[in-house]
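Team,

Forwarding the record for the chain on the shared tracking sheet. I've put the sequence and predicted structure together so nobody has to dig through attachments.
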Amino acid sequence: MTNTINYFIDGKRVTPTDGITCSDINPATGEVIAEVAMDEISAADAAIASAKSAFPEWRDTPVGARCQVLFKYKELLEQHFDELAQMVVSEHGKTLQEARGDVRRGIDCVEFACGAPSLMMGRTLPRIAVSSSFSRESDEGIPLDSSLERVPLGVCVGITPFNFPIMVPLWMWPIAIACGNTFVLKPSEKVSMCALREVELAAEAGLPDGVLNIVTGGKDMVNHLIKHNDVKAVSFVGSTPVAKYIYSTASQMGKRVQCMAGAKNIMIIMADANQDAAIEGVIGSSMGNSGQRCLAGSVAVVVGDAASWFVPKIVDAAKQIKVKAGDQAGCGMGPLIDQASVDRVTNAIENGIDSGAELLLDGRITEHSGEGFFVGPTVFDHVPPDSALAEEEIFGPVLSIMRVETLEDAIVVTNRSKYGNMAVMFTDSGYAASKFKDTAGAGMIGINVGVPAPMAVFPFCGWKESFFGTLHSNGEDAVRFYTEGRIIVSRWF
């Protein structure tokens, strides 16, 4: 009998009771790994109540003591590194190398959160002014001192996607709890085993009961969490339509909200680019993680004569990628997450053909090992600028090549997009790189880098319809998001 994934509430596993589940499937084999409880609202209420109850004591715990738990947690993550990476391979389908990267970048976020004693420091300005004395016998004024403190919000909620099962939750809750908040995590039902293990290790590190809780579910669970009166902040990563809904719904209820959303990322290839670096960068960006990431470069804009070498080399490089289960020897790309993703990507390929784009490599025709959800590397050339291939997020291993004559034409392509997550340029020209950086219209810029993912100390800065909110995840933005300022003005007689 397949096990049902438990919740983790108030420091212990809690067995779901209502019996409504969906299947957690190994995408490389189609095998059901576990069943995931769906939308048991009473569990959400219990998790929020536990977090609310734990908040006062955790808030009053010295920040250094809070971080000591995170130091221990970081060590546990290191000890369980291989276990976690293998869980990611089995539940998500990443290659083993990609899974290890997922875990490593998550650990980076924990390390950043361990710096909370410095990150939460406020500011003080003594003698900011002088006030009149209450004593009529003295004309001497009394100095006013003013200071800013950063204080936690309360119960925070994180809603995370399937594509980075370990890292994205660790974008959120470690810095939230380091700042003194408590947390309820709702991971994607497609990768809940990874999230549960991540949370259990935090409890093993000594995190007090109720500080971190996990529930599973879908739309109904999300709606309940983001509308709950006791929830003060909501963090989300996912598609743009859902991000818009969560941002508008939760913010209208007075909650602090940050929503990292979808993308259609442009990579400009100049004729003077280092050819090997450009091919390697574009392949890694477009095909890495099977194209299932918001920093996937899905459109290559080749400028002028760059097409003469870029197009044949990129097709040859894509053909060399071995598609198979992520833990098999020689695997260069794993499966998509589920059959719905296969159908979506297949439809995108068919629509691309109908739009008049030239299909150079067809991922629908691929040899692979296993009975899972596979689509191979796909490359289109001469993609019409107004086609879905050029404008819509596919979230799969499909690279669309567009040809333009000048750098200015290429920059127009980047700015035409409704998204603004990242933009990349491969060039040896400092002038071209500088002009691109300043005018590309994206929050994360890569120069001769295929995936300009910021390290944990910097914010993840999506623009336009790639982000909804005012404070991004990670870095100093995350500290400000999970705290609010308190001003103290004092004088002493």
